[in-house]
């Protein structure tokens, strides 16, 4: 299989066209078929999109390993497929397709539209899916403007980023967010189990969103540092990637600070936990990278 390098304009056209077809044309077609068939097609399509994302990522890793070629089109298509699976699940939430177990578990007909949108990250599989969308965007933006085979730090950092994404995409596939299996409680709550009342808060919109964005942004400096440690005195050669690395540290630190601050305040005033901080695993996983990046900025001052 051979891929030709594509201009940015061609990549954008292909990406927009793919998103348009998957998220506009297919839903319009689904409105023409009976409900049960529509739900079945959505479930199959959702799982197919996740599998295709995994497959394309593995192909991308292979080309980077074997040929050291940065095929930006592959990265673009991976991003498009990740976004499309996310939008398909959002479509299911907004349409009230409670035959999908994940939608039934975290939504209901009485839930306001805004919270139907954010209910996607109320559970584990939707959270991973959201995170992988931002991961794919961050990786795509990082890979622009570099076709240098000798930029080993860049090549290795992208490979590590893609491996991390692949692991979580495989986990997402087995979690099966498009599962049509019905809960034993389905007939007692045919209109959806609904979102936990503690999560119906404006903080539910911003705190998780900022967390996913920060984790995705930090993926780039995390993998670059690992790649640099593989060989002594190695560094990024392209000025764009060097600036992206510095920018991702700054914007990632800012977004994660907002996430931690909002999460702590939410825990104290909205969730009635009676504390701003409790050192549970989720909180600790957020504060550790914040400490490291804060220390990095301090060392840069001396």
Question: Would you give an account of this structure?
Answer:
The structure is a single chain. The chain is mostly helical and 302 residues long. The chain has helices spanning 8-30, 35-66, 72-95, 101-106, 113-118, 124-143, 152-175, 203-229, 239-269, 281-300. It has one domain. Helix content is 71%, strand content 0%. Helix 1 packs parallel to helix 3 (72-95), helix 3 packs antiparallel against helix 6 (124-143) and helix 6 packs antiparallel against helix 7. The longest helix is centred in the N-terminal third of the chain and has 32 residues, at 35-66. The model has no long low-confidence stretch (mean pLDDT 89). This is Cytochrome c assembly protein domain-containing protein. One of its GO terms (cellular component) is membrane. InterPro entries: Cyt_c_assembly, Cyt_c_biogenesis.
């Amino acid at each position: 299989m051979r891929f030709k390098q594509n201009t940015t304009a061609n990549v954008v056209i292909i990406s927009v066209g793919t998103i348009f077809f998957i998220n506009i044309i297919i839903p319009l077609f689904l409105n023409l078929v009976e409900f049960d068939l529509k739900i079945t097609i959505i479930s199959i399509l959702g799982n197919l999109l996740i599998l295709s994302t995994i497959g394309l990522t593995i192909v991308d890793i292979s080309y980077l390993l074997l040929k050291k070629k940065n095929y930006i089109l592959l990265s673009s298509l991976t991003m498009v497929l990740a976004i499309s699976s996310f939008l398909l699940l959002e479509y299911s939430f907004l349409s009230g397709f409670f035959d999908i177990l994940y939608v039934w578990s975290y939504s209901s007909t009485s839930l306001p539209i805004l919270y139907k949108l954010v209910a996607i990250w109320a559970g584990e599989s939707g959270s991973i899916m959201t995170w992988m969308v931002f991961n794919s965007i961050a990786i795509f933006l990082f890979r622009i403007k570099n076709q240098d085979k000798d930029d080993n730090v860049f090549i290795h950092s992208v490979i590590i980023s893609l491996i991390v994404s692949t692991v979580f995409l495989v986990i997402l596939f087995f979690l099966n967010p498009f599962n049509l299996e019905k809960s034993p409680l389905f007939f007692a709550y045919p209109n959806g189990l609904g979102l936990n009342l503690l999560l119906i808060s404006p903080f539910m919109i911003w705190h998780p969103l900022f967390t996913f964005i920060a984790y995705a942004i930090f993926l780039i400096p995390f993998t670059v540092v690992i790649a640099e440690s593989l060989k002594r005195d190695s560094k990024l050669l392209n000025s764009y990637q060097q600036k992206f690395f510095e920018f991702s540290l700054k914007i990632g630190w800012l977004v994660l600070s907002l996430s931690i601050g909002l999460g702590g305040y939410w825990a104290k005033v909205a969730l009635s936990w009676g504390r701003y901080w409790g050192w549970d695993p989720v909180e600790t996983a957020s504060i550790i990278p914040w400490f490291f990046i804060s220390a990095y900025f301090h060392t840069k001052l001396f």
